[in-house]
Amino acid sequence: MNGKREIYLDNSATTRCFPEAAALMQEIFLEDYGNPSSMHHRGVTAERRIREAKKTLAGILKVQEKNLYFTSCGTESDNLALIGGALAARRRGKHLITTQIEHPAVLESMRYLEAQGFEVTRLGVDRDGLVSPEEVAAAVRPDTILVSVMHTNNEIGSVQPVEEIGKAVKAANPGTLFHVDAVQGFCKAAIYPKRMQIDLLAASGHKIHGPKGTGLLYVADGVRLEPLLHGGGQQGGLRSGTENVPGIAGMALAAGVLCRDLDADRQKLFSMKNRLLTRLQEIPDVFFNGRTDETAAPHILSVRVPGVRAEVLLHALEDRGIYVSSGSACSSNHPRPSETLAAIGTPASEMDNSIRLSLSVMNTMEEMDLAADAIAELVPFLRRFVRR
Ligand code: PLP
User: Fold this and answer.
1) What sections of the chain are H helices per DSSP?
2) Whole-prediction pTM value?
3) 378 Cα: distance to centroid of ligand 1 (angstroms)
């Protein structure tokens, strides 16, 4: 930093690590550096770190520790669940169901599976970005082996009725697996795989103030997955490779901190988001993608500003030390039209006009006012001087 105040509103892209998590990781890097597969004292200590992390994460999800696996990111968790799940079940059927608004980690895994001979149904969403449980149920067939619906959308923050979808899937075909990409919802909402009939659930450490390079996959009892990595047989052979012990411990500690008082944190996030909403609503011709009430994610606000290209506004805000994203930051290295914005019926002429503001518990109300002030000042200026 050059002394200029920074306001970080890109927390759905990634978060700043909690200092407690960074300190724990440093301690493990320097002291408990053993390989958890080693039989000596250093290995046993490292293995204990993993067990402690599992205990914390299992407590949050209300599942058993034996059902949790560690991966390198949310993308890997989604890939393992979908590709591993489909390959293991291919003798029972070749039909998969997902939605049009999934993250590329799911959409591209589905495309890969299609190329391998599977058939994929992609369900649409309504204008709020919501999937209907009835439509999911109607799409399930006797040969449907897996349904994948995300918990919280990363671009517009719509939160799917996951519990109803889980029930609908199982009622239509008890043998169909239900996968949920919970990368944006984990530690932002109460998610209980067992109650929600979820068989596979993916989460990621760096979205919850833990380290990058860490992911989590919940696998229900009796669910078979073909491993994607072959090697030393760690984690019951499902995910070979020496475990990232510092990362795993850091992710679990961060999750524990965030979930200590989930209700209070959600209220804090909603209050900040509502402040932004109220302030931005005062700007003429500014719209919000998806719902803005408390059925949506507490931390994501997608703002459409017709007449201003998202990238131009993003960089104008950056000049003032305010960091936001245009569409989904995960794909910003390869800009392409957002499948989510298209699926909710955004007019073609306005596909390039949305920015995403995503909050974390590290933000403050004052930052919301400063960001809203900056947007309110920049929008009329950019509308006048910058061509679309
Ligand atoms: N799924 C969703 C909904 C996401 O938002 C992201 C990242 O933005 C991912 C999956 C991928 O997670 P990771 O960055 O840990 O690979």
Assistant:
1) 19-30, 41-61, 74-79, 85-89, 104-115, 133-139, 162-172, 245-258, 262-281, 310-319, 339-343, 365-385
2) 0.96
3) 30
